[in-house]
Design brief:
The chain has 16 helices and 17 strands. It has helices spanning 5-8, 12-22, 30-35, 62-65, 74-84, 98-110, 124-140, 162-166, 209-219, 244-255, 307-311, 333-344, 348-365, 404-414, 436-452, 454-464; strands spanning 41-45, 48-51, 56-59, 115-121, 149-153, 186-187, 223-228, 231-232, 238-239, 258-262, 286-289, 301-306, 374-380, 383-391, 396-397, 417-418, 425-428. The chain binds pyridoxal-5'-phosphate.
Length: 469
Amino acid sequence: MAGAHDLEVWDPEVIRAWDLEHVWHPFTQMKDYARRRPVIIAEADGVRLRDIDGRWYYDGVASIWLNVHGHRVPALDEAVRTQLERMAHVTLLGQGHVPAAVLARRLVERLPQGLRRVFFSDSGAAAVEVALKMAVQFWANQGETRRTRILGFTTNYHGDTLGAMAVAPDPIFHWPFLSYLPEEPRAPYPYCYRCPLGRTWPDCQLACLEQVEAVMAQEADRLAAVIIEPVQGAGGIIPAPPGYLKALRALCDRYGLLLIVDEVATGFGRTGRMWGVDHDGICPDILCLGKGLSGGYLAISATVATDAVYAAFWGEPGEKKALYHGHSFAGNPLAAAAAVANLALFTPEFLAALEQKAERLRERLEPIRTLPFVGDVRARGLMVGVELVADRTAKTPFPYEAQAGFVVADAARERGMLIRPVGNVVIFMPPLAATEPDLDCMTAILAEAVAASEASLAELAHAVAPDGD
Ligand SMILES: *Cc1c(COP(=O)(O)O)cnc(C)c1O
């Protein structure tokens, strides 16, 4: 038997064997994967996932930060089904389609005023690549061909394609490519828990921005743009302090640079407001969207620009001012239909409830702060990071090899919640649809998992400082 039947009738052990033998998983050391008993998901419902052995888990990272209204949401399922009756896919190259036009309009109505031109792609990384190319060509089209540099923040994450890596190179994840990537100027992201200036917000008055300005001043005539995440996501859930983005916007204006804000992770309510930039009330020149755009249903992303950026690309074919970039599945109609339905669910009531959930979550996280090996607990909206440290006083990090975050993730899995850490930071990103009782259960599992990891973490900490105690 083969074909569709394969997906109807299967044996868990056969699936497990085929997975191990043939699926090369993203961001996964397969040797490590092979020695555990991996979770393989068969279905999902609401904020839960069921594995092939019939066990249900909370989706504690919203299927890697994508899921918004839960799984199998009637309105989203219906939107995709209805669209499927019309067409699954047609191109956007040189022609339009109905779901793309509707989605672009509905997005513009919700975005900060000024962002009006929507360029669709199919992944967050692609949305970032488009933003970088847009910024460089924005200047080139006006005869400023020397402005090819992008100022990025050291530990931000923008995706795994080459341009996205170049603006946020990482010594662990990108080491083979570091000499291959163009060298971009960088500034440190504001990491208040480990402030290199030894200052505290708000007394610091964002003194760290001086370093950013110094790079801008030095590179001014070579810079096209600055790119930043409103909350550093994959770099460990680090929110920029209030006012930081606003001050950065002002600096970009002073030095005549475009500001690109990567909201692939923070968009669509994740931070407790519709957009991450809403906390500072700013409007970037270019905004990147992905992950939650289709409610986490299907692959679609967008790079949204202001009229001023768009105008620089307007010209006759012979002028070669067009943005020569496109992906086969850009703006896929099924994904766009899901995205339109997703946006419609962001009612004022939904957003108000979200702020309340964020508040409740903050309260529930408080007890975790005092647990052993917890250095910092950071939350913005429904984005949570628990930073584990080998020594709370000295804030000594666990070395990468210790994989400290996975100790807690394994303990959470045993207790019925799937999470995925980055390095020493245990990440908790429930779907926004999680109810207050769901959030209570999930945070309780998180706290129990951290507490239950004490002995294992103590062993790892001992390895860091064998003489200490
Ligand atoms: C996930 C992420 C990306 C990359 O998106 P993909 O869809 O995985 O390519 C880019 N930027 C940020 C901030 C992200 O969190």
